[in-house]
C-alpha cells in the first residue's frame, strides 16, 4: 500500500511479533557497551534515552527535528559495524527499532535523502545481516531490507535484490509453515515492484519450482491459513505474468505445471483464489505480440487440461468480483475461438508434446495418418522426428505401444521415413524393443521392424 510518497509493508503473519515484543522489553546496558568500546558514549546516550519508552514515544523522539539526524546516523553506523557475534542483542534491538520507525514517513524521508546522497548506504547495513547465523537477526534484517527496497526511491544494486530473493526463496522450503508464509509475503512485496520481477526470473529454474511445489502441497486444504498461503503464491505468479519474457518461459518450461490452476478453480471455495488463477491463465493465453504461442497454449489447455467445460461451469456461477467475470468472459471467448478451429492433428501434436497418449482415432485410424501424412513430413519431418525421439524416453509400456504403432503406420505410407529413422539412429532402438519384457511392446516393435525390412527391399 502506498501512502504519500512511500509504501507501507504490512505483514499478516505474526511470526516475528513475539520476538519483537521480547526484544523491545529487554533492558540493554548501553553504557557498559560503551566502556567496552562497542559503541561511543554519545551513541550509548542516545539509545539509553529510548529505554522504557513506548513504541510511539520512541518514534516521536527519534523523528523529532532535533534528533532525527543523530539517531539515524547512530542506527545506520551501528548496524554497519562488525560487532562480536555474542552481541547480537545490539543488532536485534536496532533492527526492531528500525522496523518500528519505518512506519514514520519522516524516518523514510531521511533515509531517502541519505540514499540519494550515497547509493546503497542505507541498504548495505541491513543486507550484511540477511545471512546471519542468528535466525532472529537474519529475519529482522530481511524484513527491514524488504521494506526499504519496495520504496519508490529505492535504486539498490541488483546484487542486493538478487541475494535477498535467493534468501527468501530458501526460506519457503522451511519445515515451519509460519516461516514459509512470512517469506512468501515478503516475496510478494518484492515482486510488487516491476523492476524486480526480471531479477527474480533470471533464476526461475531455482525459484519457480519451489513456488509450484508449495502451491501443490496446499491445493486441497481449505483452512484459512492454507487459503492465504495459496493466495500469496498465486499473487506472486500473477505479478510475474505481466512480463512478456516470463510468459514466454512459462509457455516453454512450465505449461504442464500450470494445469494446477484448472484443478484449483474447480475445488477452491474462495473467489479471490479463482480470480487470480483465471487471470494468470488469461495472461498465458493472450501474450502480447505472440499470437501463435498464445494459440498453442490454448490448444494445450483444451486438449490436456479440458479447459472448456471447466470455464463453462465457472461461467454458470454467480460472482461478485467484476474483474473475475470480465477475465472469465475473455478467456472463454479465446478458448472457444481456438476450439472451433481445432483439428485432429492438433490433438495428436499436443499428446506428443505432453508424452501422454490416449486411445483415440489419432492412433487407431489409418485414415488419420493418410490424411495427415504431409504434416508428419513438413519441415524436414519435424513431427515424425519428435515421435521417434520418444523411443529413447523411459516410458510406460503402453506409451511405447502407441509410439511404435504410429511409426508403423507412417512407414507403411512413406518409404522415405526409413531414411529419417536411419539418420536419427532409431532403427536399432526399435530392434532393441523386440526384447522388451512387455508382450504388446514386443509385438509392435516386430511390426515396425517388418515394415522397415519390407520398405527397404521394395
From TrEMBL:
The keyword Signal does not apply. It comes from the Eukaryota. Keywords: Hydrogen ion transport, Ion transport, Transport. Residues 341-457 form the ATPase V1 complex subunit H C-terminal domain. InterPro entries: ARM-like, ARM-type_fold, ATPase_V1-cplx_hsu, ATPase_V1-cplx_hsu_C, ATPase_V1-cplx_hsu_C_sf. Pfam families: V-ATPase_H_C, V-ATPase_H_N. One of its GO terms (molecular function) is proton-transporting ATPase activity, rotational mechanism. GO terms for cellular component: fungal-type vacuole membrane; vacuolar proton-transporting V-type ATPase, V1 domain. Subunit of the V1 complex of vacuolar(H+)-ATPase (V-ATPase), a multisubunit enzyme composed of a peripheral complex (V1) that hydrolyzes ATP and a membrane integral complex (V0) that translocates protons. V-ATPase is responsible for acidifying and maintaining the pH of intracellular compartments. V-ATPase is a heteromultimeric enzyme made up of two complexes: the ATP-hydrolytic V1 complex and the proton translocation V0 complex. Belongs to the V-ATPase H subunit family. This is V-type proton ATPase subunit H.
Amino acid at each position: 500500500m502506498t501512502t504519500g510518497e512511500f509504501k507501507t509493508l504490512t505483514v499478516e503473519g505474526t511470526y516475528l511479533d513475539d520476538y519483537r515484543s521480547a526484544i523491545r522489553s529487554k533492558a540493554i546496558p548501553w553504557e557498559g557497551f560503551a566502556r567496552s568500546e562497542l559503541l561511543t558514549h554519545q551513541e550509548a546516550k542516545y539509545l539509553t534515552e529510548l529505554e522504557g519508552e513506548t513504541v510511539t514515544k520512541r518514534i516521536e523522539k527519534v523523528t523529532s527535528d532535533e534528533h532525527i539526524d543523530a539517531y539515524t546516523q547512530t542506527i545506520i553506523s551501528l548496524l554497519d559495524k562488525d560487532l562480536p557475534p555474542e552481541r547480537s542483542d545490539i543488532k536485534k534491538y536496532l533492527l526492531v527499532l528500525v522496523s518500528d520507525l519505518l512506519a514514520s514517513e519522516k524516518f523514510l524521508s531521511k533515509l531517502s535523502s541519505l540514499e540519494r546522497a550515497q547509493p546503497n548506504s542505507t541498504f548495505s547495513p541491513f543486507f550484511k545481516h540477511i545471512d546471519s547465523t542468528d535466525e532472529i537477526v537474519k529475519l529482522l534484517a530481511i524484513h527491514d531490507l524488504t521494506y526499504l527496497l519496495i520504496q519508490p526511491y529505492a535504486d539498490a544494486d541488483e546484487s542486493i535484490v538478487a541475494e535477498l530473493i535467493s534468501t527468501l526463496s530458501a526460506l519457503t522450503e522451511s519445515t515451519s509453515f509460519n516461516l514459509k508464509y512470512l517469506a512468501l509475503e515478503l516475496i510478494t512485496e518484492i515482486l510488487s515492484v516491476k523492476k524486480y520481477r526480471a531479477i527474480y526470473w533470471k533464476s526461475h529454474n531455482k525459484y519457480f519450482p519451489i513456488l509450484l511445489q508449495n502451491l501443490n502441497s496446499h491445493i486441497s486444504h481449505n483452512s484459512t491459513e492454507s487459503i492465504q498461503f495459496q493466495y500469496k503464491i498465486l499473487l506472486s505468479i500473477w505479478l510475474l505474468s505481466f512480463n512478456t519474457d516470463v510468459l514466454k518461459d512459462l509457455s516453454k518450461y512450465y505449461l504442464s505445471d500450470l494445469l494446477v490452476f484448472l484443478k484449483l478453480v474447480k475445488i477452491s471455495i474462495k473467489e479471490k483464489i479463482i480470480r487470480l488463477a483465471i487471470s494468470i491463465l488469461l495472461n498465458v493465453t493472450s501474450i502480447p505480440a505472440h499470437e501463435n504461442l498464445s494459440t498453442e497454449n490454448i490448444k494445450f489447455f483444451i486438449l490436456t487440461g479440458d479447459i472448456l467445460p471447466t470455464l463453462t461451469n465457472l461461467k454458470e456461477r454467480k460472482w461478485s468480483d467484476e474483474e473475475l467475470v470480465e477475465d472469465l468472459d475473455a478467456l472463454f471467448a479465446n478458448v472457444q475461438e481456438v476450439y472451433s478451429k481445432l483439428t485432429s492433428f492438433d490433438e495428436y501434436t499436443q499428446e506428443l508434446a505432453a508424452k501422454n497418449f490416449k486411445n483415440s482415432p489419432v492412433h487407431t485410424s489409418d485414415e488419420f495418418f493418410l490424411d495427415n501424412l504431409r504434416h508428419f513430413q513438413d519441415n524436414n519431418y519435424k513431427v515424425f522426428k519428435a515421435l521417434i525421439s520418444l523411443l529413447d524416453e523411459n516410458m510406460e509400456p503402453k506409451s511405447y505401444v502407441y509410439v511404435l504403432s504410429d511409426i508403423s503406420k507412417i512407414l507403411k505410407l512413406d518409404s522415405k521415413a526409413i531414411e529419417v529413422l536411419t539418420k536419427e539412429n532409431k532403427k536399432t532402438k526399435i530392434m532393441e524393443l523386440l526384447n522388451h519384457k512387455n508382450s504388446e511392446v514386443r509385438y509392435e516393435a516386430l511390426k515396425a521392424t517388418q515394415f522397415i525390412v519390407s520398405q527397404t527391399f521394395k
